[in-house]
Design a protein that fits this description.
By secondary structure, the protein is mostly helical. It is 78% helix and 0% strand. The chain contains eleven helices and no strands. It is elongated.
Length: 208
C-alpha cells in the first residue's frame, strides 16, 4: 500500500507539474489532488525537491534508453529519426523539466550535476551517430562539421520548448512536432541527394 501511495504521488506530481508548471505547484496542492494528508505525503517524500529528484531518476533512465544505439551496426537515417522521436517523447512526458529547466537546476545542485552528465552523454552519443552516418555514406562532412552538427542537434532539442514558449506557441504537442522537424533539418545539408528525399518523406508526418 505504501508503495502504491508513493507511486501515486509521483504520477500525480508529474501530471500537475506538466500541466501547471512546477513552480506553481506545492506539496499541499499535490496532497489535495490525491485527497491525502500533507503528513502522508511527507512520510514518502521530504519535500517537493525530493519528489522532483525521484521524477528526474525516472526521466534519466528513460533518456538513457532513448539514446541507446542500434547495436553492432552503423546507424541509418531511420535510426536517427526513431531516436529523435523517442527523445522528444521523453521530453514531452517530462516537459516540466525542460520548461522550468533553469529555475529547477538553479536551486538544486545535485540535479544540475546529473543533468550535466545527461547532456555530456547525449552530446557524445549525437557525435557518434553523426560519425556513424558518415561512415555509412549517408552524410558527408569533415570531422569538425559532423561534431558540430551533433552538438547542435542536442542544443536545439534541449531548449526547443523554451524557444517555442517565448515565441508564443500555445500547443506544446505542436511545439514538440516542430522540434523534431527542426532537428532533422540540421542534418539535411550534409545528406546525399537520395537521403535528403528520404528525410523529406520522414518529416512529412510532422509538418502542419
Amino acid at each position: 500500500m505504501a508503495r502504491d501511495t508513493r507511486q501515486r504521488i509521483l504520477d500525480c506530481s508529474l501530471a500537475m507539474f506538466n500541466a501547471q508548471g512546477e513552480p506553481t505547484v506545492t506539496t499541499n496542492h499535490i496532497a489535495d489532488e490525491l485527497e491525502i494528508s500533507p503528513g502522508n505525503l511527507y512520510y514518502h517524500f521530504r519535500n517537493k525537491d525530493d519528489i522532483i529528484e525521484q521524477l528526474f531518476a525516472r526521466f534519466e533512465q528513460r533518456m538513457d534508453d532513448a539514446l541507446a544505439g542500434p547495436g553492432d551496426r552503423l546507424p541509418g537515417l531511420e535510426d536517427v529519426w526513431l531516436q529523435l522521436h523517442l527523445v522528444f517523447e521523453c521530453i514531452w512526458d517530462y516537459r516540466f523539466l525542460y520548461r522550468d529547466l533553469l529555475e529547477i537546476l538553479s536551486r538544486n545542485r545535485r540535479l544540475r550535476l546529473r543533468f550535466a552528465r545527461i547532456l555530456r552523454r547525449a552530446d557524445a552519443r549525437a557525435r557518434e551517430v553523426m560519425r556513424g552516418l558518415s561512415q555509412a555514406g549517408v552524410m558527408r562532412g569533415s570531422a569538425a562539421e559532423l561534431d558540430a552538427v551533433g552538438t547542435n542537434l542536442l542544443v536545439v532539442a534541449t531548449f526547443w520548448l523554451n524557444y517555442a514558449a517565448v515565441r508564443g506557441e500555445q500547443d506544446e504537442q505542436v511545439a514538440i512536432r516542430d522540434g523534431i522537424v527542426q532537428v532533422l533539418m540540421l542534418i539535411a545539408p550534409f545528406l546525399r541527394d537520395a537521403e535528403r528525399v528520404h528525410l523529406d518523406t520522414l518529416t512529412q508526418a510532422y509538418r502542419r
